[in-house]
């Protein structure tokens, strides 16, 4: 990287973004410590950190392997202060001999020889700081290592976005309790915005699968705790999860954000379903140590598409079973017997179920807002009714499935008291071509 001059206007806007995100005011919670540890493991180096670059100092929000109590260093060029001047990841194979970095205190005082970093970039393009790794021996980097470092920086950026939204919502809810009905519309708008932030964008394109999602809102002025996501693990596998946080409102929103991003971050290191749930269980217990427990139910699975179907391996933690809807009309409930609530007990057990989706088959995941809804006659909808509905959807596309669920949920009216999330995955049927 050649020397880059600082654009005063860009720097002013960047520093304003640092203040807006209130990053330096956030108390340590261990989330970014896990990112630093994961980065160090990926590169097999002794040191890593998550930093925010201020006007005159580089602030450490998390680090591993560096001196205990290290909070900041002067903003010298060459390392973190140089990374934020560009959008691409940056590496120095030998910092001691590189004129850009030799004078940096991390090099001259702590003996850092190797350095690699990726900028933490906000949704509107501001580079707040870095996720970086440091070693005491010179070394080169690989493309895969730098891509992983970029992914970890994106996880930090996403966590900051969600925390900012959650903190703003908490503050607003506190004020709105004291306001009149005229403030209700603004609360509804803010709640809707938060839902859009908490839920992922449209599902990705997965070879050999059709995917559709649904989030049905029960109350316009409450944020529920339902969450889901589908994302790539590697060239051959994809991960998915769907869960439900206990409770509603701003606290549920905070836990929802933490759960979703913990599961994604954990998958970078270990995509095994049980390992992912165990990691989330440990994070929730650590986050709310000494406070009222915040727990959730989750189904986390891995998809391995093949030429003529998809292998599915999933683990459950206290969540209703996923439904394998066969093209024949049969419905298999994939029970994960004994799977415990996530975030409640230190030694939680998570059970595994495996299945295969053939062409024409589908997989349905849902939260209990659906099964616990009451019909207009006052009867609980229940799992038997759900199984019957699923059987009628056999052979249909994922999009058609969620449309039918939307119609069913809308018909409950006031009998639906909890948000409902649905994730549908289907393997398209084989189209037979008739010869002339």
Automatic annotation (TrEMBL):
Residues 206-427 form the PPM-type phosphatase domain. The keyword Protease does not apply. Gene3D superfamilies: 3.30.450.40, PPM-type phosphatase domain. SUPFAM superfamilies: GAF domain-like, PP2C-like. Keywords: Hydrolase. One of its GO terms (molecular function) is phosphatase activity. It holds the Pfam family GAF. Residues 27-169 form the GAF domain. The keyword DNA-binding does not apply. InterPro entries: Bact_Sigma-Reg, GAF, GAF-like_dom_sf, PPM-type-like_dom_sf, PPM-type_phosphatase-like_dom. This is Uncharacterized protein. It comes from Nonomuraea cavernae. The lineage of its organism: Bacteria, Bacillati, Actinomycetota, Actinomycetes, Streptosporangiales.
